[in-house]
Each structure stands twice: as C-alpha cells, then as structure tokens.
Amino acid sequence: MNVEVMRNVFARNDALAADTRALLTQYGIVSVNLIGGAGAGKTTLLEATLPKLAGRKRTAVLEGDIATTHDAERIAALGVPAMQLLTDGGCHLGAALVYNSIQKLPLAELDLVFIENVGNLVCPANFDLGEQRTVAVLSTAEGDDKPAKYPLLFKRANAVVLTKLDLLPHVSFDVEQCIRYIRQLNEAAPIFALSAKTGDSLDDWVTWLLSA
Ligand SMILES: Nc1nc2c(ncn2[C@@H]2O[C@H](COP(=O)(O)OP(=O)(O)OP(=O)(O)O)[C@@H](O)[C@H]2O)c(=O)[nH]1
Ligand SMILES: [Mg+2]
Q: Is 112 within 8 Å of 59 (Cβ atoms)?
C-alpha cells in the first residue's frame, strides 16, 4: 500500500514537471535547479553569479525554503526578479508549487530561471521540477565524502559546484578525493571548484551557464 501511494506521488510530480518543462521550452527558457545541503552556499553562489550574467541573460529566481523570505530578499536586493516559495515544513520543492509559481513570472522576458531548492542533500534529489539542468552544490565545510554518502544527487547532476574553496586552509577537505567520489557516480558532469565569497574561479561556471 505504501509503495502504491509513493508511486502516485511521483507520477503526479513527474506529470507537473513535464508541464513546466514544456512551458519553459515554449518560451526558450532554461531553468537550473540548485540542490545542496542547508547552508552549502546556494544563495551566495547566486549572489555572486547573477551580476556576472547581467546584460547577457535575463534571469529570475525561485527561492525554495521551509520558512522566511530571507533568500528571496537577498536576490531582490540585486535587482533580479525573485519569488519566495515556502514549503511550510516540506523538505524539498515539488513540481506543483514550481509549476504554479513559474506562471507568475514574466516568461516572455526571461532566458534563465534559477530554482534554489530547500537546503537538503537528500529529498530534493528525488523530485523532478521540470528543470533543464540540475546542479549539485557542495561546500568544503561539509566534508569530501558527501558524494559517496548521498549518491543520488551527484548521479543526477548535470554539473557540480564545489564551493567555499577559500575555507580549504581551515577544513579537512580533499578536493581530489571528492572529485574521485563524484566521478564514481557521474563521469560527465563538469565540476566547478570556486569560492562564491571571494569570487575566485567563477568564470568557468558562468561560461557553462551562458552556454546552457
Ligand atoms: N567562506 C565562505 N563562506 C561562504 C561561501 N558561500 C557561502 N558562505 C557562507 O555560508 C553561509 C550559508 O550561505 P548561504 O548562501 O545562505 O547558504 P544556502 O545554501 O543558500 O543556505 P540555505 O538556503 O539555508 O540552504 C553564509 O554565512 C555565507 O556567507 C564561500 O564561498 N566562502
Ligand atoms: Mg539559500
């Protein structure tokens, strides 16, 4: 019985994700679903990235959180359209909330829509939101073994961002080991090691977004 219920949940989610994907394709929009643990640095990554896309891509951000409008306020402060999606306790965004929200955006005026998922390395990886690109965000503060321990996200990711590289002198994080774990799961995804705080090594990531 439980198995049947979960099947229904996923089927309904996938149908709505397909609707979102079709809608975005119709408008020529690429959407990027950022998934990573709480505090990994997803919003800071957006804060560093969005100004570099200005004038080249018309962007908007859907901010997924359990509570508060903090992250949407941080994005809006950059002058980028932002909408806060609250799950009221849910540990991931679902396709229904994204589908309903995305229709409120001025789609004809956009090229790239970022969706920052609820901070969580586990649950969001199970749910397609209709995005064209899924990006795993992992910080050096979380430990280099996380891809091995939480494989689904890293298997599914079209790109991986290793962020907070400026903290390397202060944490035990072996970048090469982390990359080996990622490669055991995913041979193709580009891996961008950077610091959103200092802005170091952001260029390859931005170039990848521009070509998405
Ligand atoms: N040193 C350093 N700190 C960073 C970097 N990126 C983010 N931080 C810090 O990490 C903390 C969390 O950053 P956020 O960007 O809010 O993380 P998040 O993943 O959006 O968090 P949630 O939305 O709550 O899941 C903040 O104190 C940031 O200043 C970085 O590249 N280097
Ligand atoms: Mg955030």
A: yes
